[in-house]
Structure formats: C-alpha cells, structure tokens
Amino acid sequence: MGRANKVVLAYSGGVDTSVCIPYLKEEWGVKEVITLAADLGQGDELGPIKEKALTSGAAVSLVVDGKESFVTDYAFPAIKANALYENRYPLSTALARPLIAKMLVDAAAEYEADAVAHGCTGKGNDQVRFDVSIAALDPSIKVLAPAREWGMGREETISYGERFGIPTPVKKSSPYSIDRNLLGRSIEAGPLEDPMTEPLEEVFAMTKAIADTPDEPEYVEIGFEKGVPVSLNGKALAPVALIEELNEIVGKHGYGRIDMIENRVVGIKSREIYEAPALLVLVHAHRDLESLTLTADVTQYKRGLEDTYSHLIYQGLWYSPLKDALDAFIDQTQERVSGVVRVKLFKGNATIVGRRSDKSIYSPDLATYSSDDQFDHKAAEGFIYVWGLPTRVWSEKTRNG
Ligand code: ARG
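^ thats the input. predicted complex w/ arginine below
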C-alpha cells in the first residue's frame, strides 16, 4: 500500500519537480501522478513543460493560467496593505504560493486525488506556505513532499531522473536558485550566499543596470481606484496588462532591486536578491495616495497592521482568520483611496513627485503660508496649553525630586 493513489503535483518543469514524478510512483507507490503547472507569468514556454511532464511519467499534465487571479486576488490586496516583509520585500514569490495551493486543491477535487505534492525542500519558506495553505483549504487532503525526505543532492537527483528518461539539464546549471513570476524575481544561492558579495549584473532580468538606463527621466502617472491600480498615464488597463507594462517602464530605469538578509520562517537567515519593479513602485505610490486621502489616526493605525499583514503572507497564513479580519479593515479604509500618483523614474530611482485625488482631505486653505491662510493662529495657544499640561504638571511635581 503506497502513501497515496492519485496525486496532483505542483510542477515547474525543473529537474526536482520532474524527478518527483517517478519518485512518487516508484518509491512511494503512487499509481497516478497528475502534474499542475501554474502559469503566473514566469515567462517559460508552457507547451514543452506540459510535454515534459508526460515523458517524465505523468498520467495527466495540466497547465493552468492563473495570471489574472494572481494579480487581482493576491497582489492587489497586498498593495492595499502596503505589504513589505521586514520593510523591504514586496512578497512577490510568497504571494504566488497560496494561489498555487488553491489550484492544487481544486484539481485534486476535480480529479478525485487523495493527495497533493510539491517539490520543496525542508529548508525554505515555500513548503510552509504550501502545506499550511493546503491544510486551510482542505484539511482532509494529504500533502506529499518527496524532496523533503529523499536526501539526494543535485547530482544524485539528476542521475535518479536519468534512469526514468528525465533529461539532464542541457545548459551548465546556474549556481543560483531563481523563482520568477509576473510580480518579480527572487535570486539566491551560489556566490550570493556570502552576504558581502555584490550580485553580478547577470542575476537581473527585469531591471536594467544604472549604466544602461536612459539619460532622461520618465514620468508615469499611476491611477488608483479604492486602493487598486487601474491606469497608467491616464490609460485604463486590465490588471495583468498594468503590471506587465509598469514592469517594463520601471525596469528600464533600473528601479526595483532589493538586496537583503531576511529571516526565514524556519529560523534561518538567508541572503536574497529581488527585483520587483512594478510591485515596489505600486506599494510606494499607493502608500503615498493614502497620505492624501486618509485621516492621521487611520493611517497610523493601519501602518501598525501592515507589518502583521506582511508577516502573515510571508509565513504562509494567507488563508487564516486574522488575514480575513485584516482584509475587512483594510478594505474599509480603501473606500476613498482613489486618485493619481506621479512618479519620476531616473537612474535607479522612483521618486514620487505629485499626487491628486477627488477624495483628497488635504486643505490648501489651512496649509498655505500665503495671506489666504484660514488657520486661526491664536487658537494654537490654548491648544498648546492643554496639550502640554501633563508635561508641565509632571515637571512641576518632579523637578525637585
Ligand atoms: N525568500 C523568498 C520568499 O521566501 C523567495 C523564495 C524563493 N527564492 C528562490 N530564490 N528560489 O518569499
């Protein structure tokens, strides 16, 4: 009796997930492996991936286009939350995992599979995100993670695959581990494991080196509707097209790179390089628009929740009651976050240089330093007396010990 009869495997076309197919069948007694490749805009050709799964022994090879849902249901809530893990990483890889988990669970139901599987190892965050998301969506389904148990190194994995007709990777394998989707690229390992080693230009694909960026600045005006980006330079765009177009524009000016040491869920510190041009600009632009449209107290309170929200995404708790409750709060705050943010792109910078909104609560009459000023300066005196009263009393009572 094997560990499961029919398994839906998250499939990327790489050696590890390909080897999972014969491994599940030969070592763990699985009768039927259905592979699922999620198209989240990683730019791979999915035709060959479909074929590869079948030659590696899959009974059914599914390719599911998840781009639209990825942007609308995962990236947009993260933008509304200004989500930046450890204040820097816009969670481009992390956001894909709950969606892939959902696709796996849906396919398992459709094909009446009794388990789902993924090729994650035991050291990363993604295994946590998959396992916890799957458990949240269907607590009765088993999750198999062969690469967490097989104990094979790279060479062994390749030669195991060869026995089952899985071709050795043709090009000399890259020293990096790269994850890519529409929102960004994550690059780690190889020379980057030394935190002091500067990433070579070769690791980047979505952002230009400063030396190769245009010598003239470019402006982009991002339109938001209730916290969600809807247009670029006045042109309404569908979610996927907006991200694609903005990645191009922003990447061309070399903005969107992050080099950080981050704290993984499993307690390990790791050095990761990211590029997420569109997503990073969108978070900053969105946060700016909030400063024009939200009251001080809502802004401040929301900022406190944003870090929690980012941690939930990073730590695999997308499908959780706290996340749902935070979404309800955040959505309420976004009712008036509509308007346009003007961003200047130049030599690796994305500088916010303007913002406007029909819902603005900025009051020029109060803010102005000109004679049009409507602010009652004399009223400040009484306010400061009351505001400072506790400080005054404290000082009076304590200054002599
Ligand atoms: N550290 C990032 C995260 O946990 C990316 C993980 C995948 N990175 C990679 N280079 N394969 O979201």
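The chain is about 40% helix and 20% strand.
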